[in-house]
Amino acid sequence: MASDRYEPLDVTERWFADLFRHVEPPGFILSSQIDMTRSRETIALAREAGLRLTYTHIVLRAVGLALDRMGELHCMIEGKRRLIPGSVDASFPVGGTGKRFMPATVVLRDIGRLSLPEIAAAMAEKAEEMRATESADFSKLRKVSFLLNRKWVRAMLMPLFLRSAKWRRDHMGTVMVTFLKDAEMFVPLTPYSGLIVAAGQVRDCVMAVNGKVCVRLAMTLSCCVDHKVWDGLTGAKFMTEVKKILVDGELEAELGSCLMNHHPAVAVNY
Q1: Pairing state of beta strands 76-78 and 81-83?
Q2: What is the DSSP letter of 28?
Q3: 35 belongs to a structural domain
Q4: Can you give the pTM of this predicted structure?
Q5: Which of 4, 21, 27 is nearest to 224 (CA)?
Q6: pLDDT at 239 exceeding the cut of 80
Q7: What residues make up the domain containing 230?
Q8: Total structural domains in the chain?
Q9: pLDDT of 168-192, one tens digit each?
Q10: What CATH number has the domain bearing residue 92?
Q11: Beta strands in the chain (DSSP E)
């Protein structure tokens, strides 16, 4: 039987553990079960055309498009003022380093205007960079570890950083999007930027469609919101727009150039 042992936390782990302690609790949580049948069809069309798409790419694009359509309601609060970003910037976790329990976070800029193929390419590039080397944020933290290893220093800096909308946007985007394919539903409770969207497992579910009970491919999407940023009606408006984009298959049109190059007969419909 192996004996118990203690090991010190890395400075990056201490930093993020304190970050979780200082972030304000969420104001409310929304969730919705979304029919992903059209999203599956979009993925199949893309793969026939040689483009590797996943549900992650589709959800990220739908969130970016929905937030872009929210106009000035897409914002961040900083004390007595409001930051209205010029673009939708999303952060998402990238694991797989095997060296720490906390995954690195990648920020993808302007997802409200990037097309679905562009998002897929950008995510692949960013993820590969993160897996190949340590993130720039982690490297910076290690350079000042002689200071950050002191709890009182972290306790002094953390509230200052979290109050700054610019700091949160630069490091965490204007929305956080996270995925957990092995759970039917999960709800992260740390909306650093004011809004965090979480997607669970895509699975067969019993649903009512046009008054009939049937089995459809579905996913539970949750949204955790800072009440200083949005009220419940605004949060519901955002979730409704994301759902509409996914259920209606709106993103298929963004595959136009890919389908034109590989399936001219099919591309006429998109």
Answers
A1: antiparallel
A2: E
A3: yes
A4: 0.86
A5: 27
A6: yes
A7: 11-17+26-252
A8: 1
A9: 999 889 999 999 888 888 888 877 7
A10: 3.30.559.10
A11: 28-35, 76-78, 81-83, 90-94, 104-108, 175-179, 195-199, 203-209, 212-225
